[in-house]
Amino acid sequence: MHKHLTGDLAALPDLLQTTRDYAVSVLAGLGERPVAPPPVPVPAAPLPLVGAGTAGALAEFQRRWAPGFSGSAGPRYLGFVTGGATPAALAGDWLTGAFDQNGSNRSGSSAAGLEDETVAWLREMFGLGPEHSGAFVSGATMSNLVGLAVGREWIGRRLGVDVARQGLAALGEITVLSGTAHSSVYKALSILGAGRDALRPVATLPDREAVDVSALAAALESLDGRPAIVVANAGTVNTVDFDDLRAILALRDRYPFWLHVDAAFGGFAALSPDHAHLVDGLTEADSVCVDLHKWLNVPYDAAVQFTRHRDLQVAVFQNSAAYLPAVSGDPDFFHLTPENSRRLRALAAWFTLAAYGADGHRTIVTGAIAAAHRLGARLTAIPGVRLLSPVRLNVVCFSVPTDVPALVQAIADSGEAFLTPTVYRGEPALRAAFSNWRTTPADADRVAALLERLLT
Ligand SMILES: *Cc1c(COP(=O)(O)O)cnc(C)c1O
């Protein structure tokens, strides 16, 4: 054994204690750490030949890299939709590494059973039924990819083509219809060989990002009975608008289509009694994407994908080999997603659900919604600031009477908060997205005061 491995093995309890103490100090300073420091170039270091042992590596990380790391786990990082890590999720994540299970298959470990239990809990939390099976993937992009891949297979079978065996060339073009699709849907279509152009944007309602269902019906009508994929959006990133899932579902009587719902973060509306109606109908979708490293507040990277057609999913993703278990009634996870070997991502989610339950997570969701409303109300009082949509859930999308990139920079430079720019209906704007369990009303006020200061 290498001398540092021997030494580290002997000193393991102390090394983990030191790492734990350091992590505690990082988390204790999260509220004061610059939320998004400007990246300072770190001079390259050569590949270590002998290494420095864990203690040496930790010291070097603290010196060279940690100072530039963001406070994205903290309460005022409002860029993208970022979330954080609850205490239980963090504990579960640590143990994921300690146990280092390969979550790909069911032999030799009960780890896959824990994933099944976690998926079942999530299914219930999002109001899905037992006919939805699920699996963990690395993020909503992968979840959308899996849903669209199974949808592509479904189209093939309707037209007598086994796409998984024969390839997309045997099927020809596929059509994907969506109102305001997330960029990851285009990416997934590129990966899947359908091509980005397969997505035909459908008109949205006036002043909305939600799809105009009559325009969707007209687009389906124009396909002359050829099956398609409809991507419904349950929470758009700019204004968190929701397609009317029930109205879309009603079109299934007339037109053949696979309904995939991108509910990456909007799915969490199901937890808020005042907002659950926004995802009514989710349970009827053929496939559903929900991100977990956003609003569930587990560390990166985790999402879940649900589908009602496990047979088609196995046709796409099965990975049979002589040395691997065969596909069974309860397929191994490597028959269900793009990955074969994979970390037991479910453990962090299991921990946070076991620790706080649906109720605890409901308070995270309703707290973020309240913070967004609070910030939105204060922003409307700043001269020249305009909300570009009502605050529907957890995001405030607004325009400012000044240069957006300069303001984004000034916010980041303050160290107090981080917001990301966007363009909404051709207008440069900012987004403040709330999804972190640590965020309090005082944080919303602090961001509002910062913007007041920078804009007046
Ligand atoms: C974030 C997001 C995605 C992509 O999620 P990743 O976790 O970054 O892969 C897809 N769709 C929507 C609506 C999102 O908000």
TrEMBL record:
Pfam families: Pyridoxal_deC (PF00282)
PROSITE patterns xrefs: DDC_GAD_HDC_YDC
Record GO biological process: carboxylic acid metabolic process
Keywords from the UniProt entry: Decarboxylase, Lyase, Pyridoxal phosphate
Cofactor(s) required for function per UniProt: pyridoxal 5'-phosphate
Matches recorded under InterPro entries: Aromatic_deC, PyrdxlP-dep_de-COase, PyrdxlP-dep_Trfase, PyrdxlP-dep_Trfase_major, PyrdxlP-dep_Trfase_small, Pyridoxal-P_BS
N6-(pyridoxal phosphate)lysine: residues carrying this PTM: 294
Source organism, top-level taxon: Bacteria
Keyword Transport on entry: no
Keyword Lyase: yes
GO molecular function: aromatic-L-amino-acid decarboxylase activity; pyridoxal phosphate binding
Family: Belongs to the group II decarboxylase family.
Protein name: Amino acid decarboxylase
Source organism of this protein record: Actinoplanes utahensis
